[in-house]
Design brief:
Helices cover 67% and strands 6% of the residues. It has a two-stranded antiparallel sheet. It contains 5 helices and 2 strands; from the N terminus they run αββαααα. It has a domain of 75 residues: Butyryl-CoA Dehydrogenase, subunit A, domain 3, CATH 1.20.140. With 108 residues, the chain is mainly alpha-helical. β1 and β2 form a beta hairpin. It binds flavin-adenine dinucleotide. Flavin-adenine dinucleotide binds next to α5.
């Protein structure tokens, strides 16, 4: 579990660094990442951080689940990364848009 967590955190970091390094320069010292690269970084990081915290909680057994440890709170906090600032599904829609070079009807 620890090895997998290390691998996933590194993969998430690399996606973030890639989006940041390729970001275009805009006026006023603003950097704008490409939509597909930022969506991949956000979707993957949301997924990976939730899995890493969930596995960390599991490593401590029932104690990890209890409020004596910070992990139950961390698990709720990282869940937000898959909802806030664009849900994982919204990020995947943006990635699909980039792959197929077209917009999709996003009506529910
Ligand atoms: C802790 C927290 C902090 C937040 N902070 C901010 C903030 O700082 N600024 C801000 O602007 N917003 C913020 N939000 C709001 C957040 O961005 C929205 O909750 C999020 O975009 C989802 O919108 P919604 O709640 O209206 O759900 P809905 O849009 O109703 O979506 C419900 C579900 O349906 C899925 N879905 C919707 N449309 C599609 C589609 N076309 N294809 C596939 N799946 C779809 C969504 O992925 C989601 O799982 C925050 C939310 C949370 C929980």
């Amino acid at each position: 579990m620890m090895a997998e967590a290390e691998m996933e955190l590194n993969a998430a970091r690399l996606l973030i660094y890639k989006a940041a390094c390729n970001a275009r320069d805009l006026p006023n010292n603003v950097k704008l990442p490409y939509m597909d690269e930022s969506s991949m970084a956000k979707a993957y990081t949301g997924h990976a951080s939730f899995k890493v915290v969930s596995d960390s909680l599991q490593m401590f057994g029932a104690y990890g689940y209890s409020q004596d440890m910070p992990l139950e709170r961390m698990l709720r906090d990282v869940r937000m990364f898959q909802i806030g600032g664009g849900t994982s599904q919204a990020q995947l829609n943006m990635i699909a848009r980039s792959i197929f070079k077209r917009k999709f009807d996003l009506r529910k």
